[in-house]
Design brief:
With 68 residues, the chain is mainly α. Helix content is 38%, strand content 6%. The longest helix has 10 residues, at 7-16.
């Protein structure tokens, strides 16, 4: 499956909508953009996230923030 050019932007849009006090996993983000199984790619997108995005609301499958 080819990754769409706007994959990162779609991930950022979803992350921006995560309410305070809630979290989402990389896998959930990938599924929400229609790319199940691409959790690592969602993580890569988060590694280059723009300033001000609430990246602390995205966790790994174990419920922990990934090392940055």
């Amino acid at each position: 499956m080819k990754i769409p050019a706007d994959f990162d932007a779609e991930i950022y849009d979803i992350v921006a909508q995560i309410p305070a006090g809630r979290v989402a996993t990389y896998g959930q983000l990938a599924r929400l953009v229609g790319m199940p199984g691409y959790a690592r790619r969602a993580g890569r997108a988060m590694g280059t996230a723009p300033e001000g995005l609430p990246c602390h609301r995205v966790v790994n499958a174990s419920g922990r923030t990934a090392p940055g």
